[in-house]
Amino acid sequence: MIDKTRRYLRAAAMTAAAAVSMTLAGAAAAQAATAERTPGNDVIAAITKASSAPGVPDVFLGGVERTVLPSDGKFTVTTPQGDVTVELLGSVDSGVTVANSLRAYENLPDVSTVPVTKTDGSVQIATVIASSASPTEYRYVIESEKGSRLKEVDEGYIAVVSDDGNLIAGVAPAWAIDANGGDVHTHFEIDGNTLVQYVEHGEGSAYPIVADPWVGGTYLESYQWLTSYRVEYRPTWYGSWGCFGSVSCAAAWQGSAQAELVNANSGTYKTRAGYSTTRNQIGCHMFGAGVKSPWNIETNVGDIGLAGFIAVGCNP
Fold first, then answer.
1. Same domain, yes or no, for 110 and 246?
2. Measured by CB atoms within 10 angstroms of the end CB, which terminus of the chain is less buried, N or C?
């Protein structure tokens, strides 16, 4: 399912990534022309190139904010359901400043890690693997003040679940891209409250390789009622990608995505935002719309269930 999803996204991802990737590539080239080559330049160039690969969510889109990693190696992902912390394992150094005021941390041998915080509260963790001496296993401890455990809601789609069973955050499917723009086999495994990403590289691999867990849980960026019954739901960058291609993921998260719309409204609009047909249309777009925005939701359409809306392309 994940490979099929990436193939389906190729054209859309190339279009969405092109402008930002070209800008950052130009910035990296200018740096190289005016200064000695540094590890920071190499890292940003590798991430920029990987982000232009078909079917890859561009690391530098989605409203990048400066990310400075605390000395304990933990950073916070903010969601409407609550905050979670993600801890990088290894020896966290002071980091090297790279483009967009981001910092690269050499926390493992021959590895540079660039945590990229988005304006939607999600964090994309770009891991640049420099050589065959780099590890094949990358571990991230994920915790919440509400207590939490990790759960696979579909193959490759991970959820952070509180002790009382509520979803707090999600992890988009794993990906890894080599220096030639080719896919490198990778997958997630769960070890207690630790997310483990395995990247199968070694002899014959084209380095550097870029891999990235992406943790988030905010789905609504903005909305607009076009009529008294039709609402444009504009998803966050994470919301566009987090459940794409997975019915199980969309079914698990559509209630949270709907709740954001409900909580943003009042009166009659709040009621219509809370309809079951609204929820299932949102879930349909989470599954099938990908990077399309906005999602058009018709709250006066009879509810035919998530599977029913998927069968008719979300908007009957």
1. no
2. C
